[in-house]
Amino acid sequence: MEGESSGRVIGHYRGSEAGPLVVAIGGIHGNEPAGVRALEKLFELLDEEPELNPGFTFRGELLALRGNLEGLSQGKRYIDADLNRIWRPFIGKKPVFQTSEDRELYELLACIEHAVEEAPLSELVFLDIHTTTADGGIFAVTGDDTPSLSLAAEMTVPVVKGMLSSFQGTTLHYFRGDHFTTDFPVRAVTFEAGSHNDPNSVELALAATINLIRALGCVRDEDVNTYHDELLRGAATHLPALTDLVYIHRITEADKFVMSPGFVNFQAVRKGDVVGRDRNGDVAVPDAGYLLMPLYQEQGDEGFFLLQDYKMPDGY
Ligand SMILES: [Zn+2]
């Protein structure tokens, strides 16, 4: 299929039974190769599985893609533009690419649309795997609708809601929003697998992906090693199960924002705690909660995020 020669496609597994089409992408940010490695390992496991376990069956399809190929080859988050902020449809047959990431997006969409057209799918599920610069905690981000939240929860990882209304142009927006009109259900989950350079992030991303395809019924419970569940539960111990985004500290280069060292994901903070500095002096958190994704890299438009515990209203 298209893209294969460029290294875009990690693998395309077609099960013997019809079911959901799962599209998994690693390396949307080029300095986050753990997701790519996890998906490569998943395809190695899928190749071996029928020999080790003759009763193994797979329902539906799994398409795994490398996100920002040029960014991955240079080990940079992006070349010209953040690939997780520009998702939109291309109008017309021959687009002119303004940025390196425009081309990446065009190729990704071509692969996905091709798979959607070919597959007799019951549902489209999109998994986008990332890692963060900070230590301390794995989590899933998804839409605030019940089917998406329950799928994320079934991955047995902490779930962060409320992100969708705060950004434009992310993969979640594209697949959960108006750009992708379908006559079948679409769900999208972003998984943050730990810190960029922790080898454990690869294992956690692999475990979360396996839990996702199990939750969707692509693979049977009895065919999944409980090792993955234990790994995720171990990494999520002491982390809040469901939180809501309440604040984003947005920055520009001119702000000269520098996060104070030592903060980790889900670190509890009190209102007024100083967490960084910019050209105007100290930067404090506006409310109590948990810090998420404190910025410890040069590229990025958000200094940190603030979360608070969230309880689902009755009826969910
Ligand atoms: Zn990322």
TrEMBL record:
GO MF, one annotated term: succinylglutamate desuccinylase activity
Family annotation (SUPFAM superfamilies): Zn-dependent exopeptidases
Residues in Succinylglutamate desuccinylase/Aspartoacylase catalytic domain copies: 19-163
InterPro entries membership: AspA/AstE_fam, AstE_AspA_cat
Cofactor(s) the protein requires to work: Zn(2+)
Keywords for this protein: Hydrolase, Metal-binding, Zinc
EC code: 3.5.1.96
Origin: domain of life: Bacteria
Protein name from the UniProt record: Succinylglutamate desuccinylase
Gene source species: Neolewinella antarctica
